[in-house]
Design a protein that fits this description.
This protein is of the alpha/beta class and about 300 residues long. The chain contains 13 helices and seven strands. The strands form two sheets. It has a five-stranded mixed beta sheet with strand order 1-2-3-4-5, with helices on both faces. The protein has a two-stranded antiparallel sheet with strand order 6-7.
């Protein structure tokens, strides 16, 4: 069924989507969504050009790591966050935040068949990428005891749609590296050998994931070339890190617990939210996992936040 849906979307692409490199072709659009390289300066320059051409459009950014206000202030035009989860062709989530009335953005998300989640206020990484980045930082620790394929197989066994390393490959390892570095500026606890070591090595070697045919996995078109998995691993610590960051997100006033749960459900296709998972696993259990990892590594990402 999924392959049929993809084929239909590709057919519609050919019929309905026009490609251009000329800004003037955008002059009559009413909704403009930017999804270029994760570079704040480039995004600002894009909207400076766009506002001179698109006189009636509302502007949105799919940035993974910047606040829309950072782009708005630099380009002197109002820009809202309109952030998809990967792969956007399958996942229904769109995170929305910005200054002013969000109703048109919510309406447009629904119009294209997505499920909009309105955040209370802006922050770098919004909700989803703060949780995923916290998870990514902890992977340096996890890789000492398991392979990427064993970790991903265990994540899928738990009920997630995609494995963590598969997601990075789909996003692009160069893009993932840019996102991690941007978020580390805002959240120093996101410093990690996984980011500066493992991801950088892949990028330097030109292995950027799905788009180059090789990253953590080898790819054949849309599909992963299967890797042998000999063991499954306990992913409780990885989930504890995500819960830890989710509690910080709530404390920061970015979203309430139910909204964070909704983001997790829509982004992972897991039947429950991240706080539902915490209830099942037990907060005391999660706290002990974090304390042990923090005592061993002194990595701030493992320091238990209040409430864990």
């Amino acid at each position: 069924m999924l392959e049929l849906e993809r084929a239909e979307l590709r057919r519609r692409d050919r019929l309905e989507i026009r490609y251009t490199t000329n800004f003037l072709d955008l002059r009559d659009c009413d909704f403009l969504l930017e999804s270029i390289k994760e570079d704040l300066g480039l995004k600002i320059e894009f909207f400076k050009k766009a506002k001179e051409v698109c006189r009636r459009a509302i502007f949105a950014t799919n940035t993974s790591s910047y606040m829309p206000s950072e782009i708005s202030e630099g380009a002197d035009v109002n820009v809202f966050l309109f952030h998809f989860s990967n792969p956007p062709i399958e996942m229904p989530l769109v995170e929305i935040s910005g200054k002013g009335d969000p109703s048109k953005y919510v309406e447009y998300a629904r119009k294209i068949g997505k499920s909009p989640v309105l955040l209370k206020k802006q922050c770098r990484g919004a909700v989803l990428n703060r949780m995923l980045c916290a998870l990514g930082v902890s992977l340096g620790y996890a890789l000492k005891i398991a392979s990427p394929y064993e970790i991903d197989a265990s994540v899928k066994l738990f009920g997630m749609k995609y494995g963590v390393f598969e997601i990075f490959d789909r996003i692009g390892l160069d893009v993932s590296l840019d996102v991690f570095r941007s978020l580390k500026e805002a959240y120093p606890r996101f410093s990690s050998e996984f980011i500066e070591g493992v991801l950088q090595q892949f990028v330097d070697s030109g292995k950027l994931g799905k788009k180059t045919g090789e990253g953590f996995y080898r790819w054949h078109g849309e599909e992963i070339v299967p890797e042998k998995v000999e063991n499954y691993v306990d992913i409780t610590l990885l989930l504890a890190v995500i819960v830890n960051e989710a509690l910080r997100i709530v404390e920061d006033g970015i979203a309430d617990r139910e909204t964070v749960n909704e983001v997790w459900r829509l982004a992972t296709r897991y039947p429950g939210g991240i706080f539902d998972i915490a209830e099942i696993l037990g907060y005391e259990n999660l706290s002990e996992q974090l304390k042990r990892a923090y005592q061993e590594t002194r990595a701030e990402i493992f320091r238990p936040f209040k409430g864990v």
